[in-house]
């Protein structure tokens, strides 16, 4: 990640490049994003129930956006900026080095999480925030049906 501030021992962050950037970043949601809520609406309308922002394993820090613990299915709906979408990701020009390290670390953490969850028997589905919510919900429903058929 970023450099460590020797005085405080905490992770150092560069100051925002402008007041507008600071305001935009303050509005960023970690959960219940528009993309997540739209997918959840489609699932719920089709009678599919789930857990939201749920911890997956006691010893892992990871929480899934939409989760079925009994079936070991987790869905992540990734933001294009934060998770490196190949179509829409951008990299800030201000504080470019810090952002590159931050965003690259996010992507590496996602791959590590996917591998660890798969090793533990979880099915991991990842979608981009720009994907059509109805299509995402249909993909999830199909995977649920397949997993229930295996039980």
Considering the chains and any ligands shown, give keywords for the structure.
four-stranded mixed sheet, alpha+beta, 15% strand, 151 residues, Endonuclease, Chain A
Q: Any idea what the CATH superfamily is called?
A: VSR Endonuclease
Structural class: alpha+beta
Q: How many β-strand runs?
A: 4
What percentage of amino acids are in beta strands? 15-25%
Please estimate the helix content: 40-55%
Query: What letter string, H or E per element, gives the SSE order?
Result: HHEEEHHEH
Count up the domains: 1
The first-to-last residue Cα distance is 41 Å
Q: Whole-number average pLDDT?
A: 86
CATH topology: Endonuclease, Chain A
CATH architecture call:
3-Layer(aba) Sandwich
Radius of gyration: 17 Å
- Sheet with the most strands: spatial strand order: 1-2-3-4
So what's the CATH class? Answer: Alpha Beta
Number of helices: 5
Uncertain regions: pLDDT < 50 for 5+ in a row?
A: 1-10
Largest sheet: 4 strands, mixed
Structure description:
The protein has a single domain, classed as 3-Layer(aba) Sandwich (Endonuclease, Chain A), CATH 3.40.960. Helix 2 packs across helix 5. A hairpin with a 4-residue loop joins strand 2 and strand 3. 44% of the residues lie in helices and 15% in strands. With 151 residues, it is of the alpha+beta class. It has 5 helices and 4 strands; from the N terminus they run ααβββααβα.
């Amino acid at each position: 990640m970023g450099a460590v501030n020797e005085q405080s021992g905490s992770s150092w962050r560069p100051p925002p490049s402008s007041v507008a950037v600071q305001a935009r970043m303050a509005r960023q949601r970690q959960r219940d994003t528009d993309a997540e809520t739209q997918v959840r609406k489609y699932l719920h309308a089709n009678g599919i129930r789930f857990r939201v922002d749920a911890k997956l394993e006691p010893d892992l820090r990871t929480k899934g956006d939409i989760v079925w613990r009994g079936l070991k299915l987790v869905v992540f709906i990734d933001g294009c900026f934060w998770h490196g979408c190949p179509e829409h990701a951008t990299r800030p020009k201000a504080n470019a080095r810090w952002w590159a390290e931050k965003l690259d670390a996010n992507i590496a953490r996602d791959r590590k999480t996917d591998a660890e969850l798969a090793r533990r028997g979880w099915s991991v589905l990842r979608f981009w925030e720009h994907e059509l919510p109805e299509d995402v919900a249909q993909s999830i429903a199909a995977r649920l049906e397949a997993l229930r058929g295996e039980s």
